[in-house]
Design a protein that fits this description.
With 478 residues, the chain is an alpha/beta fold. It has helices spanning 42-61, 64-80, 82-93, 97-117, 156-168, 182-194, 208-215, 230-242, 265-276, 297-309, 329-344, 395-402, 418-427, 460-465; strands at 8-10, 13-15, 22-26, 33-38, 124-126, 133-141, 145-148, 172-175, 201-204, 223-227, 247-250, 255-259, 287-293, 348-351, 366-369, 386-392, 410-414, 432-435, 454-455, 468-476. The N and C termini lie far apart (70 Å).
């Protein structure tokens, strides 16, 4: 394929950065440089901020019914262009083409859902204490927003910010992922081609810290949204807090998976294999700490290890590939370090445990058993294709281990006992818990974490709430 010349989108125009600086894009399956993208200068950022302010007024002035139509038109264009956008995701980021197609089409569903939800931004009338007074609570858009998005889901994570922002009536600047810039640009073109007014959406790339330090303090920006690591999220949340700006933070996790003795092991293994090794484990909600009850521990470890061994690893453009590469050499080395530390402290490698001897950034699907809390990998998010197994006897032990870390994003469980379902529902500290199936990340459901995994939601009606504020009006009538 011919990789496009990736430009910035500022005030409805695709353009290079004012300083002429460009960054390189590398295909993680080959290690080869495939193209470049434009860096935004400070002057470019100032123009984007000014355009977002004007764009907010233009978008807010469009009726909610027309906004909804434009959003649905953009979603339709995304579906028409899904193959091209998905191919860009695969060559930039590495995930199998089938996963990339699912990302694009699922993201279009997200836009459709928020396009409809836009029509339901209801306020309320509050009964007053006087007969000649009316009291209203009106929900109005918060204003221009800025979003910072990661490379691992370069289309869907952006749309988890754009879709509710547009539905609420806000304009938005997105600081896109420098590792995967072309797929977001192709997705933004769907919105511009659908007729979204110039300035409503801006797309910039560059040095992340320079963009955040310049844009978040700007009086134009009224809302901040970030998806990424816990340390960076805490820094951006603190920066937003200095200027009294609300922030949605979707940060890292270390998701526990609790498998009870009565679980349907075949169903659990089939579902979790696909979810664990999706995008080579580079997923913030990836199931990671497998806590398996002692009655089925040995059997489930064997089942899961056999399934992991059978996965075909390769270039995501190969239709037979089930797992692609890691994003870069740094991520590969981080996984190697964590696995080596675990093995040195007594973990057993059931399968994998090493990089693959081929070009690109490939690491074998890995299962470690007999892991313990003192191992670094049980405390740091591995963000790679590594599943960690330990046994428990009583459910209370598993819940305690699930809650041990400061993270609280996603969690998983398999059990047939209603008493255990109740205990898990009441006891597991996480923003999301799915039991006996994989039920996370649908457009209509909340998506977010607690504790160090962040706050706020990027799914369901709760996501729309993050881009609205309540305007109370009390009026005495003559």
């Amino acid at each position: 394929m011919n990789y496009p010349e990736v430009k910035l989108l500022i005030n409805g125009q695709w353009r290079n950065g004012g300083d002429g600086v460009r960054g390189e894009v590398v295909n993680p399956a080959t290690g080869a440089t495939i193209g470049s993208f434009a860096h935004a200068s400070r002057a470019d950022l100032d123009e984007a901020l000014q355009a977002a302010q004007v764009g907010f007024k233009a978008w807010q002035a469009i009726s909610v019914f027309e906004r909804s139509k434009l959003m649905r038109k953009a979603a339709g264009l995304m579906r028409e262009r899904a193959e091209a956008i998905a191919t860009l995701i695969t060559v930039e980021e590495g995930k199998p083409l089938g996963e990339a197609r699912m990302e694009v089409n699922g993201a279009a569903d997200l836009v459709d859902w928020f396009a409809e939800e836009a029509r339901r931004t209801y306020g309320r009338v509050i009964p007053s204490r006087a007969s000649n007074v009316t009291q209203q609570a009106i929900r109005v858009p918060i204003g221009p927003a800025i979003g910072f998005t990661p490379w691992n889901f370069p289309v869907s994570q952006i749309l988890r910010k754009i879709a509710p922002a547009l539905a609420a009536g806000c304009s938005m600047i997105i600081k896109g992922p420098e590792e995967t810039p072309a797929a977001p640009a192709a997705m933004f073109a769907c919105f511009t081609d659908a007729g979204v007014p110039a300035g409503t959406l801006q797309l910039v790339y560059g040095v992340p810290s320079e963009i955040s330090d310049h844009c978040i303090p700007s009086p134009v920006i009224r809302k901040v949204s970030f998806t990424g690591s816990v340390p960076v999220g805490k820094h951006l949340a603190a920066l937003a807090g200095q200027y009294m700006k609300p922030a949605t933070m979707e940060l890292g996790g270390h998701a526990p998976v609790i498998i009870c003795n009565d679980a349907d092991l075949e169903a659990a293994c089939s579902a979790l294999i696909a979810f664990k090794f999706r995008n080579a484990g580079q997923v913030c909600i990836s199931p990671t700490r497998f806590l398996v009850q002692d009655g089925v521990y040995a059997r489930f470890v064997e089942m899961f290890s056999d399934a992991a061994t059978a996965l075909k690893v390769g270039d995501g453009l190969d239709p037979s590939t089930q797992m692609g590469p890691l994003i870069n050499e740094r991520r590969l080395q981080a996984v190697e370090r964590l696995v080596a530390d675990a093995v040195s402290k007594g973990a057993r490698v059931e399968t994998g445990g090493a990089r693959l001897d081929r070009p690109g950034h490939f690491y074998a699907p890995t299962v470690l058993s007999n892991v313990t809390p003192e191992m670094a990998i049980m405390n740091e998010e591995p963000f790679g294709p590594v599943a960690l197994f330990s046994a428990f006897h009583h459910l209370d032990e598993a819940i305690a281990e699930a809650n041990r870390l400061p993270f609280g994003l996603a969690s998983y469980a398999w059990t047939r006992r209603q008493a255990d379902v109740h205990a898990l529902t009441q006891g597991v500290e996480a923003g999301m818990l799915t039991i006996n199936h994989l039920g996370l990340a649908l457009p209509e459901t909340p998506y977010g974490g607690i504790k160090d995994s962040g706050h706020g939601s990027e799914g369901g009606s709760e996501a729309l709430d993050g881009y609205l504020h309540t305007h109370f009006v009390s009026c005495m009538h003559a």
